[in-house]
């Protein structure tokens, strides 16, 4: 067991609190296992009527996964331990998605990568004025996993593709507007919300959160949705770049400059991933696809290089391989998405 996850029962609520503030509660494999064990234990425990997921302290809900661990795996064990991390993390994501009891996730602060994976499956997703939501993986040679393909591909228009490629950050109001959050509360109301959820009828959770909801500020992304839909209309990455290149507006130039910093390989992977996920009817099938991708991308050159440039050396000058969108072949993408040997495929808990 790990001290980085605190579990307890308050009233009729099972509470899971992330407790790794020094890393903004980024998920480690022991944290993933502790969360899964608690959820499995409470699944058939009648005294637990609902589950609350929050963070114990600090400025973020969950900043993602243990990127340093994954990079070390890519460099030193050919991705073996990294694949184990992905496999078990995706089992947690699926467990939450299919959980029979109401889950309430409080996305109070930074909610990125792995934090998205443990909040989006929840029936109730609470944003606040502190929420900063993003799937920034293409900047380090990864892709929007942990169910990202499922959630992003189901957003309005082409917003999901925009978020997957650019890693753009959303505030709480934008999360509410796009449906990534179900409620918007002031952070000052969270303690009362949790106390009432733990003691009042679980059928009242929606009403409790609705009663305590605050009026959010204007969702800034709304004014850009038509522009996003136009420029990000294609599932072909070269078309998106060309569309932005043909627009001399400040917005287009800014987004084009952002895309120029991302891994061409994983931008193309993300577009195919979202197109594939949109056609699936079963979340388990989605996670199976994402595990195939993750198993391959983890040991491709861009991941270790992206983490080096952004997180280790912080020079923000990654040398991507392939270096251009045109250099990323359909054959490479086919290999990344190909089924694994039967015994290596991802399986739910």
What can you tell me about this protein's structure?
The radius of gyration is 20 Å and the shape is globular. α2 packs antiparallel against α3 and α13 packs antiparallel against α14. By secondary structure, it is an alpha/beta fold. The chain contains 16 helices and ten strands. It has a single domain (5-344), classed as 2-enoyl-CoA Hydratase, Chain A, domain 1 (Alpha-Beta Complex). It is 47% helix and 11% strand. It catalyses: 3-hydroxy-2-methylpropanoyl-CoA + H2O = 3-hydroxy-2-methylpropanoate + CoA + H(+).
* Overall mean pLDDT: 97
CATH architecture: Alpha-Beta Complex
**In DSSP terms, counting alpha (H) and pi (I) runs of 4 or more, how many helices?**
16
User: What is the CATH homologous superfamily assignment?
Assistant: 2-enoyl-CoA Hydratase, Chain A, domain 1
Report, as a whole number of angstroms, the end-to-end distance.
19 Å
Q: Give the strand tally.
A: 10
- And the CATH topology? 2-enoyl-CoA Hydratase, Chain A, domain 1
Order of helices and strands: EEHEEHHEEHEEHHEHEHHHHHHHHH
Q: Return the structural class.
A: alpha/beta
What's the CATH C level? Alpha Beta
Question: Which strands sit side by side, in order, in the main sheet?
Answer: 1-2-3-5-7-10
Shape: globular
Helix percent band: 40-55%
Domain count: the total is 1
The main pleated sheet reads as:
6 strands, mixed
Flag low-confidence runs.
none
- Portion in strands: 5-15%
- As a whole number of angstroms, the C-alpha radius of gyration is 20 Å
């Amino acid at each position: 067991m790990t001290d980085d996850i605190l579990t307890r029962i308050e009233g009729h609520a099972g509470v899971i609190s992330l407790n790794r503030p020094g890393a903004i509660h980024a998920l480690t494999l022991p944290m993933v296992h502790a969360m899964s064990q608690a959820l499995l234990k409470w699944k058939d425990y009648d005294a637990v009527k609902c589950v609350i997921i929050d963070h114990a302290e600090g400025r973020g809900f969950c900043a993602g996964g243990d990127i340093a661990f994954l990079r070390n795996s890519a460099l030193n064990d050919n991705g073996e331990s990294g694949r184990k991390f992905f496999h078990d993390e995706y089992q947690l994501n699926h467990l939450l998605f299919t959980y029979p009891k109401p889950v309430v996730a409080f996305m109070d602060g930074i909610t990125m990568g792995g934090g998205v994976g443990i909040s989006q499956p929840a029936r109730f997703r609470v944003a606040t004025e502190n929420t900063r939501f993003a799937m920034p993986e293409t900047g380090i040679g990864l892709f929007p996993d942990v169910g990202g393909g499922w959630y992003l591909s189901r957003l309005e228009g082409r917003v999901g593709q925009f978020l997957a490629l650019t890693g753009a950050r959303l505030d709480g109001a934008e999360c509410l507007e796009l449906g990534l959050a179900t409620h918007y509360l002031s952070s000052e109301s969270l303690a009362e919300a949790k106390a009432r959820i733990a003691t009042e009828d679980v059928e009242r959770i929606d009403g409790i959160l609705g009663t305590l909801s605050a009026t959010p500020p204007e969702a800034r992304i709304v004014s850009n949705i038509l522009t996003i839909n136009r420029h990000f209309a294609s599932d072909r990455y070269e078309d998106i770049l060309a569309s932005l290149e043909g627009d001399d507006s400040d917005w287009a130039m800014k987004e084009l400059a952002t895309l120029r910093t991302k891994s061409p390989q994983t931008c193309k992977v993300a577009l195919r991933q979202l197109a594939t996920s949109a056609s699936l009817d079963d979340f388990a099938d989605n996670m199976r696809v994402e595990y195939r991708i993750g198993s391959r991308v983890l040991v491709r050159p861009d991941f270790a290089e992206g983490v080096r440039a952004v997180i280790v050396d912080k020079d923000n000058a990654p040398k991507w391989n392939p270096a251009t969108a045109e250099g990323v072949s359909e054959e490479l993408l086919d290999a990344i998405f190909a089924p694994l040997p039967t015994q290596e495929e991802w399986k739910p808990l």
